[in-house]
Amino acid sequence: MLGPPGAGKGTQAARIADELGVTRAASGDLFRENLRNETELGLLAKSYMDRGDLVPDNVTIRLVMSWISAPQQGDGFVLDGFPRTLPQAEALDSALEPGGIDRVLYVNVAEDELVKRLAGRFICRGCQAPYHAIASPPKEEGKCDDCGGELYQRDDDKAEVVKNRLDVYFEETEPLVGHYSRSGVLREINGEGTVDAVGALLVEALR
Ligand SMILES: [Zn+2]
Fold first, then answer.
1. Interior angle at CA 5, CA 105 and CA 102, nearest 5
2. Mean predicted confidence (pLDDT) in 85-96
3. Counting runs of H as helices and runs of E as strands, what totals does the chain give?
4. Adenylate kinase active site lid domain: from which residue to which, for each copy (predicted)?
5. Using one digit for the tens of pLDDT, what is the confidence trace for 130-146?
């Protein structure tokens, strides 16, 4: 599954895996799991993170491939958040030969809608209660319903930062969309409806 931050991709990936009765991996979860279990790959990834470096593609690829080759994934699987770059996609293609990925579902949401979703988060300074300008606004603007504390925005959730994160994502993902579109497996889904509506489109695209 491909989709920008804020597109609801994680939620949908979990639903699809349930619906199809297959397993699912989010690449972030795989990292955390390997770090927690101190596997060889986990420790290798950690050595890069500890230096403040990005984990190189070949380590990420090995991590995902070791998950894919486990027997639980024999009936199929949903990948969420991987591949993220063209080299990762090419490595995945050759590792899965013969065969390959059956479908790439691209959950597309317009950038201004994503900024609205992602930059709408606020937190109470007093009790840390989360709010969202659209999804769960406080009764009184800027004030916590529970404790009356001041609501603030984390730096990560500010519109400027969010826009920058999205730009990086789109730049990175554009070549992937082209790659899977050329191989005929890409299905683009409009991700701006309700969770149920988008879920139905995704299931349809898999048939
Ligand atoms: Zn509060």
1. 15
2. 88
3. 8, 7
4. 121-156
5. 999 888 999 999 999 99
Is-catalytic flag, 117? no
Q: List alpha helices for 124-158, DSSP H.
A: none
> Positive or negative, the Cα torsion across 169, 40, 22, 71?
positive
Residues 158-175 have pLDDT tens digits of 999 999 989 988 998 889
Confirm if 104 and 175 have CB atoms less than 8 A apart.
no
Would the CA dihedral through 170, 173, 179, 185 be positive or negative?
Answer: negative
For ion ligand 1, residues whose CB falls within 5 Å: 124, 126-127, 129, 144, 146-147, 149
Q: How close is the Cα of 127 to the center of ligand 1, in Å?
A: 4
Is residue 67 within 8 A of residue 25, CB to CB? The reply is yes
Residue 23 reports pLDDT greater than 90: yes
Angstrom distance (rounded) from CA 204 to CA 207: 5
Q: Which fold has domain 9-109+174-206?
A: Rossmann fold (3.40.50)
Check pLDDT > 90 for residue 24. Answer: yes
122, 151 Cβ separation under 8 angstroms: yes
